[in-house]
Design brief:
Blueprint (H helix, E strand, L loop, with lengths): L1 H20 L4 E2 L2 H17 L3 H14 L3 H14 L2 H12 L6 H26 L77 E6 H7 L4 H4 L6 E5 L5 E5 L11 E4 L2 E2 L20 E8 L3 H4 L6 E7 L8 E7 L4 E11 L2 E13 L12 E3 L6 E16 L3 E16 L8 E15 L3 E16 L1 E3 L7 E20 L2 E18 L4 E19 L2 E12 L4 E15 L2 E12 L3 H4 L2 E5 L5 E6 L1 H4 L8 E12 L5 E13 L2 E3 L7 H5 L4 E3 L4 E7 L1 E3 L3 E13 L6 E14 L15 E11 L3 E10 L2 E8 L6 E8 L2 E12 L4 E8 L18 E9 L1
Parallel strand pairs: 5-8, 25-30
Antiparallel strand pairs: 1-34, 2-7, 3-4, 5-6, 7-8, 9-10, 9-40, 10-11, 11-13, 12-17, 13-14, 14-15, 15-16, 16-18, 18-19, 19-20, 20-21, 21-22, 22-23, 23-26, 24-25, 26-27, 27-32, 28-31, 29-30, 32-33, 33-34, 34-35, 35-38, 36-37, 38-39, 39-40
């Protein structure tokens, strides 16, 4: 322990030294700095100050490379008449295989022809031995009236011309326009399906950038979300992390929709996301968009309190590379990726392995009175994965993307009800295809999750619920979108159809089940003036379980007091359908008394002809975002939510004689036990309210320093009519604070330190008393959490190689993030990476 403490202190000191000692040489946020240099450079070029403009554009490219910067540098050299330099940068641009490469090749050919004629004219003017005109009296190159290599010859048609104006129009005589769009502007796609600035988003949206991911050193995708205001992160085991938004916490998180490149990875069998079963890792992620607030108007069921969209790097983008990491308790991380592009075809292939240990070994394997599902009692998660994506471009704006992934491994989770400690031995595979044009997109996605599961440990003679299940989902979608004028107003419309076939084969829920879901959605963005936008969204879903239609409307008004600030008002709805495990429970649950069962079947409470209704939410939100300063941006949000029909466990009453006569209790010949009680799930009769606010700031006070901080206030209340059974609703922290500092330096040292705080919580959990038939609810108090995470890295060999050290919970303050969760401690991990 002393050695660990000394190492932690040394790492803290090294991190502080990096931040304090090298900030004068560091670079701030990559995108922000590159955008600043790029806009300054383009403005200088437009004003005719070409040399100064090129200098700024080169700084932008050095900070964060983008092909369009090369193009504009080349075009600036054309304007300067330096065709040899222009050719060099145009060729670098062509090496990226851009969509407009044929047009650019024509420009290159014209420039090369012009340059060749200039050189021929110069050679003739200079004369050569044995040629007419050669001799000592020949004027020197560059003398008055004489051409200079790379400069226009008098009377020679100029491939360039005056610089394009802000509209990006073609310069006279060139036939090609400057690329004047803001290529480094931060954009989001999840909030309204179309690419836009966060200033125009109808919901509160936060972006976790590739720089945030890299500098944090965190390899668990859900842990990356801890820095976002209003997001609750809860680790139960080393591999089981649950994510909720704006107070709707649960042990098995089921109110958040998680997407990978817009494709749902939600598992319908339990109604949750198992993050550690994905076939990608953090090294394939370009950014993560977090939308806080109901999203069913666009994404249907399960986007209850928010949407997380993990957007991966496009095929062909970035560099091939490898990264490996090792840490205490045999933490292991490995990621290998290969990317490439050949003409219109681009690809990305990745493979990896990750192992996270339990925070504590819950079962002593030497005990003879216990059954264990696996011998891997120190492993919380193990994931072997492979993923491949390929993109074929047809013309400028038509693409076909196909791919797939596979993962297999072990995952320790906390299930629902009394299933506290479950182990999943899983195989997961997926395939996807997407075709997209200027105004149309069609997508199909298939996901299959096969699992062998059981309780991690139980007493000999108790049921271990050892079973196998296969869950599958086929998701198809077509969407039409267009931007046009509606009278004097700008109008952007998205309309689409969705079909989802989901299936489950699990004997615990009665065998094979298949459901067919359908939906239609529409979003219309009207902009009557430059300073106001109205966004109206709606979706209608067919639920085959209930044989009914579920509407999900949303409306937003965005007002711009200035060009770079926005005030947002929105009203939105969402719902969460019952997962298979909630809709179809029908199995005996063995009680601690080995000969006794409690039959688990919701229809015993609801009636044979009634079913569990979807959970529903209505939320009002007001927000403000300000990006006017180059040195900082900040945002505010306030919200009020009303939720009804929450699905929860019903009381476990002891069976009566009438229950025995009705066949709902008594001796069960299948199990050989006696059913003496029964339980299930039902919709709560209470109405739950969650309200609060969020405030955040991200600042770049000096070049090289990137700071962020945010605060979230979460309050709740509940209306419970007389005789209504509903658990207390205090399982969220009232106060949450996140803060961090990032540094990148020209000497290769980089790092991040983040601080996280959340106030105490109270959880109400179902408890089974050993030796009795009692199933009751108890309250558990959780202390406040203070956590510091840190990373320090050093890049060398022209930034192709890097070594780094990451610390999780650096201060070592052991704590529980859930009452039945393991005691979370401190972990260290070292990494080595090389990019080809």
């Amino acid at each position: 322990m002393r050695r660990r403490a000394r190492f932690a202190a040394a790492m803290s000191g090294l991190t502080a030294l990096c931040f304090l000692g090298i900030s004068r040489h560091a670079l701030a946020d990559e995108r922000t700095e590159a955008r600043r240099f790029y806009l300054q450079g383009m403005e200088l070029v437009v004003d005719g100050q070409y040399e100064e403009g090129v200098e700024k554009l080169l700084l932008a490219y050095e900070t964060l490379p983008h092909p369009n910067v090369l193009y504009n540098i080349a075009r600036a050299y054309v304007e300067m008449g330096e065709y040899d330099k222009a050719l060099d940068y145009f060729k670098q641009y062509l090496d990226t295989e851009p969509a407009d490469r044929e047009e650019v090749r024509e420009v290159v050919q014209r420039l090369q022809s012009t340059l060749d004629r200039q050189r021929a004219t110069l050679a003739a003017a200079q004369g050569k031995p044995g040629q007419p005109g050669a001799g000592p009296t020949q004027p020197a190159p560059g003398a008055p009236g004489q051409p200079t290599p790379g400069q226009p010859t008098p009377g020679e048609p100029t491939p360039g011309g005056p610089a394009a104006g802000p509209g990006g129009g073609a310069a006279p005589g060139t036939g090609f326009a400057a690329k004047t769009e803001d290529i480094y502007e931060q954009t989001v796609v999840t909030a309204s399906r179309g690419q836009q600035s966060p200033l125009g988003a109808p919901n509160s949206t936060t972006i976790i950038t590739s720089q945030d991911i890299r500098l944090s050193g965190i390899t668990k995708i859900p842990e990356l979300l801890r820095r976002v205001a209003g997001v609750d992160i809860m680790q139960i085991t080393g591999g089981d992390t649950n994510v909720s938004i704006r107070g709707f916490n649960s042990r098995l998180s089921n109110k958040l929709l998680v997407l990978v490149d817009g494709r749902s990875v939600y598992l319908d069998v339990l109604g949750t996301t198992f993050w550690e079963t994905l076939s990608i890792d953090v090294d394939q992620i370009e950014r993560i968009e977090v939308v806080r607030g109901p999203g069913s108007a666009l994404y249907g069921a399960d986007a209850f309190s928010g949407v997380v969209n993990i957007i991966t790097k496009a095929p062909g983008e970035g560099r091939s590379g490898v990264r490996v990491g090792f840490g205490d308790e045999l933490q292991t991380y490995g990621s290998l990726r290969a990317v490439g592009r050949q003409g219109d075809l681009a690809y990305r292939v990745s493979a990896g392995y990750t192992r996270y240990p339990r925070w504590s070994e819950s079962v002593n394997r030497e005990r003879v009175d216990l059954y264990t599902f696996t011998d891997e009692q120190k492993t919380a998660s193990a994931n072997y994965r492979f993923d491949a994506q390929a993109l074929r471009r047809f013309g400028k704006n038509t693409t076909l993307n196909v791919g797939g992934g596979y993962s297999t491994g072990l995952l320790d989770i906390s299930g629902i009800g009394v299933f506290y400690d479950m182990v999943l031995d899983y195989d997961r595979s997926n395939t996807n295809a997407e075709f997209k044009t200027d105004n149309f997109r069609a997508r199909v996605y298939y996901d299959r999750f096969a699992v062998h599961t059981g309780m991690n440990a139980n007493y000999i003679g108790q049921t271990n619920y050892d079973s196998r299940a296969v869950s599958s989902a086929l998701d198809t979608e077509i969407e039409f979108f267009d931007t046009h004028k509606l009278g004097s107003m700008n109008n952007e419309i998205h309309v689409g159809l969705n079909y989802r076939r989901k299936g489950l084969d699990w004997m615990l829920l009665g065998g094979e089940t298949t459901e067919h879901h359908g939906a239609v959605f529409l979003e219309d963005s009207l902009q009557p003036t430059d300073w106001m936008k109205i966004v109206l969204s709606g979706r209608l879903d067919y639920n085959p379980y209930l044989e009914s239609l579920q509407p999900s409307p949303r409306g937003s008004i965005i007002v711009h007091p200035s060009e770079l600030s926005a005030v947002r008002f929105s009203a939105s709805t969402a719902y969460r359908k019952a997962a298979f495990m909630e809709a179809l429970p029908s199995f005996p649950l063995q009680l601690p008394v080995s000969a006794a069962d409690s039959f688990y079947g919701s229809d015993l409470f609801l009636g044979k002809d009634q079913k569990v209704e979807p959970e529903k939410i209505f939320q009002l939100e007001a927000g403000y975002l300000n990006q006017e300063s180059e040195l900082l941006e900040w945002d505010l949000a306030a919200y009020w939510s009303r939720g009804v029909d929450f699905i929860d466990g019903a009381p476990f009453p002891v069976a009566s004689p009438s229950d025995v006569l009705a066949g709902n209790a008594g001796y069960n010949p299948t199990t050989g036990r006696y059913t003496i009680a029964y339980g299930g799930l039902l919709n709560e009769c209470a109405t739950r309210y969650v309200y609060g606010g969020e405030a955040g700031i991200r600042a770049y006070p000096i070049v090289g320093l990137d700071l962020f901080a945010n605060y979230a206030l979460t309050l709740n209340d509940m209306d419970k009519p007389p005789g209504c059974f509903a658990k207390p609703f205090d399982y969220q922290s009232k106060h949450k604070v996140n803060a961090g500092v990032q540094v990148r330096s020209r000497v290769g040292v980089s790092g991040e330190v983040t601080y996280h705080y959340q106030s105490p919580q109270t959880w109400t959990e179902m408890v089974v008393t050993l030796g009795t038939t009692d199933v009751t609810y108890e309250d558990f108090e959780l202390d406040a959490i203070h956590m510091v995470n840190a990373r320090v890295g050093y890049a060398f060999w022209k930034n192709s190689a890097e070594v780094s050290v990451t610390a999780y919970n650096l201060l070592g303050s052991e704590h529980q993030q859930h009452p039945i969760g393991q005691l979370v401690g401190r972990r260290f991990m070292g990494f080595m990476a090389y990019n080809f």
